[in-house]
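Table 4 source record.
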Amino acid sequence: MVQLFSPDYFTIKKKGGVSAAQNFTAYLGGSLFQTVIDNPVTAYRQLIQQYAKDAEGKMIEPKLARQQANAVFKSSPVGACLSGLGPRCVGVATKRIPKFGFLLGISYFTSESGQVGYLAAIGASIASAPFINPIRMIEKQQRTAFKTTGKSKPIMEILKESAAKQYKPLFRGTVPLMGHSLASATTGLVGQPQLQKYIQKELGQSGMFGQFATNMIASAAVSPIYIIITNPLSRLEVIMQTSSINKKSISLGEAIKEVVTDSKTYGLRGIFRGQGIGIAKAIVSLSMFHQGRLWCTEAFRSRNERLGLIPTE
């Protein structure tokens, strides 16, 4: 069994042709690739969910919220597309290293082959949440001023406001994040690769579908399930993390009541605000993450093979 950061962790295996360390790096590479590609969709979805209420705090039609999000993107297309990208890229290290570290670490301790399974996904979702939440909070806070100023809120301003309250606001929304992260890990990190292998086995033999095509098909199949599970949790995160840091925080119970009120007023449209764009985002995110991960893994494998580092026995 591989011990993290022991010599065996860096040893290249015959099966797969990469070391555990290279596999971990490939996960980070895929995450960075996904982050850059899907940021505009991520920003747009948050604004749709964030604009669920008007200036007086009353729920508005989902259609109107979408129109307001469209107006923000039309007035500041570049700024809106790039909003939150800085924290998200930093988060590839501060968020993904703990998450993938726990995910792959638990996998190597619980599986002889190091295969990522559901037990590892559960452990990683809970253990990594305190590391991930502050970055997600900063990312969402950056977009809160777009409606009034047309610009992202400066990161230093967010940190100063948080410092005045002993940085406690950075941990708003941790509980729904755990549920969101668990759904993401089980469907995206465990389910999607397994489904892709099956699809590649069944469809790839015809020669009509390559790695990228089967990746997209698997992501498209998994994404609706993932979004149905996570969209209400995402709403809770947005409600709790986009409220003003200088004002009283919104508790989990209050956020749930707000979603319930929305559902009573607008039915399923209220619960699943941003559902359509969420599915599109999930397909793009999952596909780009796994494609980037596979590219990195293949690059490491080719390098190891070229240098004769893969054991023959």
